[in-house]
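chain below, 174 aa
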Amino acid sequence: MTDPRDLLFSLFAVFTVACALGVVLNRNAVASALSLLLCLVGVAGLFALLDAFLLAVLMVFVYAGAVVALFLFIIMLLDVKGGERKPFGAATVVAGTLAVGLLTTGVLTVARAATPAKDAPQLVAQNFPKLKDYAELLFTQYLLPVQVVGFLLLIAMLGVIVLSKRHEGLEDIK
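prediction:
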């Protein structure tokens, strides 16, 4: 009998790859950002299957919550329209096919060489710090970098607002 975690892993992996393709192949920027949101939720599910619950929660809160919301805000503020795409050239198709082939070969080589560890979650739990250790580091040693990143995101968002307002003013003059 197969482990239900294997089935869940396969489902989350297929879901994540499908959503990633949706990000890249979508012509609409808003739909692409929403596909990115679903892709990040799929990655959070994969982290949860690895018993890395902190990373799963951070993935949902920080990336799926804050960053995608910021992307959507900026996309809607700038009113980005999808344009005509140029067809791929022969060199692009050859390079893409070569890249996919190399990636597939690498993944299959690693998958064949890997031996599944039955007690991997217990080893991870024993060798990695607990949530309290992360919190202590976050609010002591890494407090300044976290605050700086927050201010940089705020400044970037305000910059987009200022630039879009200037652009609107120029349209009125013409």
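Residues 76 and 167 are 14 Å apart (CA to CA). The radius of gyration is 21 Å.
thats it, cya
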